[in-house]
Amino acid sequence: MLPARLRTSLYLLAAVGGSSTQLAQAQTNATYDPRWGSWFIATVQLPPGQKGWGAFAEVQGRANAVARQFFYYELKSGVTYNLSKSFTLMVAGGRYSTSDYRDLDDGPLNRENRLWEQLTLTQNLARLKLEHRYRVEQRWFSFRDDIKPAGSFTYRNRIRYRFNAFLPLNQTTITDKTVFLSVYDEVFLNPRGPAFERNRVYAGVGYQFDSHWTLQAGWVNQANYTSANFRNNVYTPQTTLDKNNLVLALMYRIKRTKSAVVPTPERLPSQQD
User: Fold this and answer.
1) Using an 8 Å Cβ cutoff, are 32 and 242 in contact?
2) Residue of higher predicted confidence among 50 and 271
Protein backbone atom coordinates (compact mmCIF):
# COMPACT_ATOMS: atom_id res chain seq x y z
CA MET A 1 0.00 0.00 0.00
CA LEU A 2 1.00 3.61 -0.53
CA PRO A 3 2.24 5.54 2.50
CA ALA A 4 -0.48 7.50 4.28
CA ARG A 5 1.07 10.88 3.43
CA LEU A 6 1.33 10.00 -0.26
CA ARG A 7 -2.30 8.79 -0.33
CA THR A 8 -3.42 12.06 1.28
CA SER A 9 -1.43 14.10 -1.25
CA LEU A 10 -2.94 12.14 -4.16
CA TYR A 11 -6.45 12.77 -2.84
CA LEU A 12 -5.73 16.49 -2.56
CA LEU A 13 -4.23 16.60 -6.06
CA ALA A 14 -7.27 14.84 -7.50
CA ALA A 15 -9.56 17.25 -5.68
CA VAL A 16 -7.71 20.23 -7.15
CA GLY A 17 -8.01 18.86 -10.68
CA GLY A 18 -11.66 17.85 -10.27
CA SER A 19 -12.72 21.15 -8.77
CA SER A 20 -10.89 23.09 -11.48
CA THR A 21 -12.61 21.15 -14.27
CA GLN A 22 -16.03 21.61 -12.68
CA LEU A 23 -15.37 25.34 -12.32
CA ALA A 24 -14.43 25.64 -15.99
CA GLN A 25 -17.56 23.76 -17.12
CA ALA A 26 -19.94 25.54 -14.76
CA GLN A 27 -19.36 29.06 -16.04
CA THR A 28 -21.42 28.74 -19.25
CA ASN A 29 -22.63 26.15 -21.72
CA ALA A 30 -19.42 25.65 -23.66
CA THR A 31 -19.11 25.10 -27.39
CA TYR A 32 -16.46 22.41 -27.72
CA ASP A 33 -14.02 22.19 -30.61
CA PRO A 34 -13.86 18.44 -31.33
CA ARG A 35 -10.35 18.71 -32.81
CA TRP A 36 -7.47 18.38 -30.39
CA GLY A 37 -4.74 20.97 -30.69
CA SER A 38 -1.14 20.84 -29.51
CA TRP A 39 1.24 23.12 -27.61
CA PHE A 40 5.03 22.81 -27.69
CA ILE A 41 7.04 24.72 -25.07
CA ALA A 42 10.82 25.03 -24.67
CA THR A 43 12.27 26.96 -21.72
CA VAL A 44 15.79 27.89 -20.67
CA GLN A 45 16.04 28.94 -17.04
CA LEU A 46 18.81 30.54 -15.00
CA PRO A 47 17.86 29.72 -11.40
CA PRO A 48 18.37 32.40 -8.73
CA GLY A 49 21.86 32.60 -7.28
CA GLN A 50 22.89 33.48 -3.73
CA LYS A 51 21.82 37.12 -4.29
CA GLY A 52 18.38 36.02 -5.45
CA TRP A 53 18.49 37.04 -9.14
CA GLY A 54 17.50 34.67 -11.93
CA ALA A 55 16.21 34.75 -15.52
CA PHE A 56 14.38 32.74 -18.16
CA ALA A 57 13.69 32.63 -21.90
CA GLU A 58 10.95 30.64 -23.62
CA VAL A 59 9.64 29.84 -27.08
CA GLN A 60 6.24 28.31 -27.66
CA GLY A 61 4.29 27.13 -30.69
CA ARG A 62 0.65 26.07 -30.91
CA ALA A 63 -1.23 24.13 -33.56
CA ASN A 64 -4.92 23.73 -34.32
CA ALA A 65 -4.41 19.96 -34.67
CA VAL A 66 -1.91 17.51 -33.23
CA ALA A 67 1.54 18.58 -34.54
CA ARG A 68 0.07 20.25 -37.65
CA GLN A 69 -1.83 23.38 -38.67
CA PHE A 70 0.51 25.64 -36.67
CA PHE A 71 -0.91 29.11 -36.23
CA TYR A 72 0.60 30.72 -33.12
CA TYR A 73 3.98 31.37 -31.54
CA GLU A 74 5.34 33.36 -28.63
CA LEU A 75 8.83 34.47 -27.60
CA LYS A 76 9.34 35.76 -24.08
CA SER A 77 11.97 36.35 -21.42
CA GLY A 78 12.33 37.98 -18.04
CA VAL A 79 14.20 38.36 -14.78
CA THR A 80 13.24 37.01 -11.36
CA TYR A 81 14.16 37.88 -7.82
CA ASN A 82 13.64 35.67 -4.77
CA LEU A 83 12.40 37.78 -1.87
CA SER A 84 12.57 34.68 0.33
CA LYS A 85 12.36 30.91 0.05
CA SER A 86 8.62 31.15 -0.69
CA PHE A 87 8.19 34.49 -2.51
CA THR A 88 9.47 35.29 -6.01
CA LEU A 89 9.05 38.44 -8.09
CA MET A 90 9.24 38.54 -11.88
CA VAL A 91 9.31 41.24 -14.54
CA ALA A 92 9.09 39.91 -18.10
CA GLY A 93 7.97 40.63 -21.63
CA GLY A 94 7.16 38.85 -24.84
CA ARG A 95 6.05 38.96 -28.46
CA TYR A 96 3.03 36.95 -29.60
CA SER A 97 1.78 36.25 -33.13
CA THR A 98 -1.49 34.64 -34.27
CA SER A 99 -2.12 33.59 -37.88
CA ASP A 100 -4.75 31.74 -39.90
CA TYR A 101 -3.26 28.27 -40.35
CA ARG A 102 -5.20 27.95 -43.64
CA ASP A 103 -3.48 31.00 -45.14
CA LEU A 104 -0.09 31.58 -43.52
CA ASP A 105 1.24 33.48 -46.54
CA ASP A 106 -1.00 36.44 -45.73
CA GLY A 107 0.90 37.08 -42.50
CA PRO A 108 -0.25 37.21 -38.88
CA LEU A 109 -3.83 38.20 -38.08
CA ASN A 110 -2.52 40.05 -35.04
CA ARG A 111 0.70 40.69 -33.16
CA GLU A 112 0.99 41.45 -29.47
CA ASN A 113 3.76 42.94 -27.36
CA ARG A 114 3.32 42.25 -23.67
CA LEU A 115 4.88 43.22 -20.36
CA TRP A 116 3.97 41.75 -17.00
CA GLU A 117 4.75 41.86 -13.30
CA GLN A 118 4.33 38.72 -11.24
CA LEU A 119 4.38 37.47 -7.65
CA THR A 120 4.66 33.73 -6.91
CA LEU A 121 4.02 32.16 -3.51
CA THR A 122 4.98 28.52 -2.84
CA GLN A 123 3.87 26.20 -0.03
CA ASN A 124 4.60 22.62 1.02
CA LEU A 125 1.85 20.39 2.38
CA ALA A 126 3.63 17.14 3.28
CA ARG A 127 5.11 16.13 -0.08
CA LEU A 128 2.52 18.11 -2.04
CA LYS A 129 3.94 21.35 -3.46
CA LEU A 130 1.54 24.27 -3.96
CA GLU A 131 2.12 27.40 -6.01
CA HIS A 132 0.02 30.59 -6.20
CA ARG A 133 0.87 32.89 -9.10
CA TYR A 134 -0.45 36.45 -9.43
CA ARG A 135 0.22 38.37 -12.66
CA VAL A 136 -0.66 41.83 -14.04
CA GLU A 137 -0.21 42.28 -17.80
CA GLN A 138 0.11 45.28 -20.10
CA ARG A 139 -0.69 44.38 -23.72
CA TRP A 140 -0.27 46.22 -27.05
CA PHE A 141 -2.02 44.76 -30.13
CA SER A 142 -1.77 45.47 -33.85
CA PHE A 143 -4.29 43.81 -36.18
CA ARG A 144 -3.67 43.01 -39.84
CA ASP A 145 -7.13 44.08 -41.03
CA ASP A 146 -7.53 47.06 -38.69
CA ILE A 147 -8.32 50.38 -40.36
CA LYS A 148 -6.22 52.33 -37.83
CA PRO A 149 -3.13 54.20 -39.11
CA ALA A 150 0.03 52.14 -39.55
CA GLY A 151 2.06 51.93 -36.35
CA SER A 152 -0.93 52.42 -34.01
CA PHE A 153 -1.83 49.93 -31.29
CA THR A 154 -4.78 48.76 -29.22
CA TYR A 155 -3.95 48.68 -25.52
CA ARG A 156 -5.42 46.32 -22.91
CA ASN A 157 -4.71 45.22 -19.34
CA ARG A 158 -5.28 41.78 -17.88
CA ILE A 159 -5.04 40.09 -14.47
CA ARG A 160 -4.23 36.40 -14.06
CA TYR A 161 -4.23 34.00 -11.12
CA ARG A 162 -2.93 30.41 -11.31
CA PHE A 163 -3.08 27.72 -8.66
CA ASN A 164 -0.57 24.94 -9.41
CA ALA A 165 0.03 21.71 -7.48
CA PHE A 166 2.94 19.28 -7.89
CA LEU A 167 3.26 15.80 -6.40
CA PRO A 168 6.53 13.81 -6.65
CA LEU A 169 5.76 10.09 -6.85
CA ASN A 170 9.06 8.28 -6.30
CA GLN A 171 10.80 10.90 -4.15
CA THR A 172 9.75 13.22 -1.33
CA THR A 173 11.01 16.24 -3.32
CA ILE A 174 11.35 17.02 -7.02
CA THR A 175 15.00 16.27 -7.64
CA ASP A 176 17.09 14.10 -9.99
CA LYS A 177 15.24 11.09 -11.49
CA THR A 178 11.87 12.18 -10.09
CA VAL A 179 8.49 11.36 -11.62
CA PHE A 180 5.85 13.90 -10.65
CA LEU A 181 2.26 14.89 -11.31
CA SER A 182 1.17 18.46 -11.96
CA VAL A 183 -2.25 20.12 -12.17
CA TYR A 184 -3.24 23.76 -12.39
CA ASP A 185 -6.19 26.04 -12.93
CA GLU A 186 -5.72 29.61 -14.16
CA VAL A 187 -8.30 32.37 -14.50
CA PHE A 188 -7.86 35.43 -16.77
CA LEU A 189 -9.65 38.63 -15.76
CA ASN A 190 -10.24 41.72 -17.89
CA PRO A 191 -10.63 44.94 -15.85
CA ARG A 192 -12.77 46.55 -18.60
CA GLY A 193 -15.04 43.54 -19.08
CA PRO A 194 -16.10 40.91 -19.66
CA ALA A 195 -14.50 40.32 -16.27
CA PHE A 196 -14.06 36.57 -16.78
CA GLU A 197 -12.13 36.30 -20.05
CA ARG A 198 -10.53 32.85 -20.02
CA ASN A 199 -10.05 29.71 -17.97
CA ARG A 200 -7.21 27.22 -18.42
CA VAL A 201 -7.06 23.77 -16.77
CA TYR A 202 -3.99 21.51 -17.02
CA ALA A 203 -3.09 18.01 -15.85
CA GLY A 204 0.12 16.20 -16.71
CA VAL A 205 3.05 14.02 -15.73
CA GLY A 206 6.70 15.01 -15.71
CA TYR A 207 10.17 13.59 -15.23
CA GLN A 208 13.18 15.50 -13.95
CA PHE A 209 16.20 13.74 -15.39
CA ASP A 210 18.84 15.74 -13.50
CA SER A 211 19.60 19.29 -12.39
CA HIS A 212 19.42 20.43 -16.03
CA TRP A 213 16.61 18.67 -17.88
CA THR A 214 12.89 18.31 -17.13
CA LEU A 215 10.20 17.01 -19.49
CA GLN A 216 6.43 17.30 -19.02
CA ALA A 217 3.53 15.96 -21.08
CA GLY A 218 -0.13 16.58 -20.41
CA TRP A 219 -3.54 17.93 -21.36
CA VAL A 220 -4.76 21.51 -21.22
CA ASN A 221 -8.30 22.72 -21.73
CA GLN A 222 -8.62 26.40 -22.64
CA ALA A 223 -12.01 28.09 -22.59
CA ASN A 224 -12.39 31.60 -24.04
CA TYR A 225 -15.43 33.59 -22.93
CA THR A 226 -17.33 36.36 -24.70
CA SER A 227 -19.66 38.64 -22.75
CA ALA A 228 -23.42 38.70 -23.08
CA ASN A 229 -24.76 41.73 -24.98
CA PHE A 230 -28.01 43.40 -25.99
CA ARG A 231 -27.85 45.10 -29.39
CA ASN A 232 -30.61 46.13 -31.80
CA ASN A 233 -33.19 44.65 -29.40
CA VAL A 234 -31.49 41.25 -29.64
CA TYR A 235 -30.03 39.58 -26.54
CA THR A 236 -27.00 37.35 -27.06
CA PRO A 237 -26.00 35.26 -24.00
CA GLN A 238 -22.44 34.67 -22.91
CA THR A 239 -20.74 32.11 -25.12
CA THR A 240 -17.65 29.98 -24.70
CA LEU A 241 -15.22 28.33 -27.10
CA ASP A 242 -13.66 25.33 -25.42
CA LYS A 243 -10.69 23.36 -26.83
CA ASN A 244 -8.53 20.48 -25.60
CA ASN A 245 -4.82 20.42 -26.36
CA LEU A 246 -1.87 18.09 -25.89
CA VAL A 247 1.10 19.80 -24.20
CA LEU A 248 4.79 18.88 -24.45
CA ALA A 249 7.14 21.07 -22.39
CA LEU A 250 10.92 20.78 -22.16
CA MET A 251 12.93 22.79 -19.64
CA TYR A 252 16.70 23.26 -19.42
CA ARG A 253 18.23 24.85 -16.32
CA ILE A 254 21.61 26.52 -16.56
CA LYS A 255 23.56 25.22 -13.60
CA ARG A 256 25.30 27.81 -11.47
CA THR A 257 28.52 27.12 -9.60
CA LYS A 258 27.59 24.83 -6.75
CA SER A 259 28.25 26.14 -3.28
CA ALA A 260 29.87 23.80 -0.79
CA VAL A 261 28.03 25.56 2.02
CA VAL A 262 24.53 26.17 0.66
CA PRO A 263 22.80 23.07 -0.80
CA THR A 264 20.85 23.38 -4.04
CA PRO A 265 17.19 24.08 -3.13
CA GLU A 266 14.24 22.24 -4.63
CA ARG A 267 12.99 24.08 -7.72
CA LEU A 268 9.44 23.55 -8.96
CA PRO A 269 9.20 22.82 -12.73
CA SER A 270 6.56 25.53 -13.31
CA GLN A 271 5.57 26.39 -16.86
CA GLN A 272 6.10 30.09 -17.56
CA ASP A 273 3.15 30.42 -19.94
Assistant:
1) yes
2) 271
